[in-house]
């Protein structure tokens, strides 16, 4: 097979351990549904020792640059071992290219790795199944494998290199956003990066918060000097920061703040959201995030819901049910189950209602704690009584968050 080999600069994590990942600026939708306004990186790592070991390859769409990066480090030297921490195609997508290019390559996974991997890419010739905690010397370096089931699929695992203290954590501690040149945490503005990292967490890992917390607690017994995930920044200076963030999110430790998400066909429910927000603000809540669900993708709203403790959902009536994009958001809420929230529900009834009652039914079924009765308004929220009820709903929600 011919590849267009370009000369690329290599990037070292430590002596003989290289970053060989790629920035993907072309894919619009991660997993074909999560917007990527700032792209995503597929991180891959190469350890050059008596054995050459590649830890997690990249999405097949980036195969050209990936092979160039490998060549920049290795020249004609072959890769001996490929560690597959996770079989999902954003990492494993280039496995078949690698097994073709390096026919003797040994592919390392755990007992759950090869069923999905071979289902995706066909038979693997040289499989090595490692046990949880097993070590593998490769020269001056030694790898140790830790299974991390459900972070975020059953076969997920992390690989720890004992001599350097680098944890190759795969999806855990990852984030959206390309790396833009600097791969390390100390080369970036973390205030910006935190939002894309939390959106990744909320929409990818949050569903499995409990097993994630267990894995964090278990791995924290290791002497970790660097965390090298398979998306986003490599953590070498702000390890405590990223561990704290992941622990907070996995413990559902929300900050003081309220997310108001509404669907509105003719602007009336949008006006209601504004009045609810006024009540929340007057309760002294400074972080008030108001989203039109038709204009902001649910992944961004879910990320803020994960961050804050208060949630107000507003819908007009749409064919006897709720606004369509609000159904997408509530579906994600039910799937991902962020905990420790206080909810409020409001909306318009148009001709015959259905938006508010559908939200109420969902709240009952999902056991969302409501701070008070829902508020449903006929038409525009122009009557003083309507405005008062909406304002009071916001005030009650704000006070509930303030006193939590
Ligand atoms: Fe980044 Fe679960 O794949």
What does this structure look like?
The chain starts with 10 loop residues before the first strand and ends with a helix. α8 packs across α12. Strands 1-2-7-8-9-10-11 form a seven-stranded mixed beta sheet, with helices on one face. A five-stranded mixed beta sheet has the order 12-13-14-15-16, with no helix packed on it. A five-stranded parallel beta sheet has the order 18-17-19-20-21, sandwiched between helices. It has helices at 63-74, 89-92, 95-101, 114-121, 190-205, 209-219, 239-250, 268-282, 298-307, 324-336, 355-366, 384-402; strands at 11-14, 17-19, 22-24, 29-30, 34-35, 40-42, 45-48, 52-55, 81-83, 106-109, 127-129, 135-137, 142-147, 157-161, 166-170, 226-229, 255-263, 288-292, 308-315, 342-348, 375-377. The model has no long low-confidence stretch (mean pLDDT 95). It has two domains: 3-250, Metallo-beta-lactamase, Chain A (4-Layer Sandwich), CATH 3.60.15.10; 258-403, Flavodoxin domain (Rossmann fold). It has twelve helices and 21 strands. The protein is 34% helix and 22% strand. The chain has 404 residues and is an alpha/beta fold. The structure holds MU-OXO-diiron (FEO).
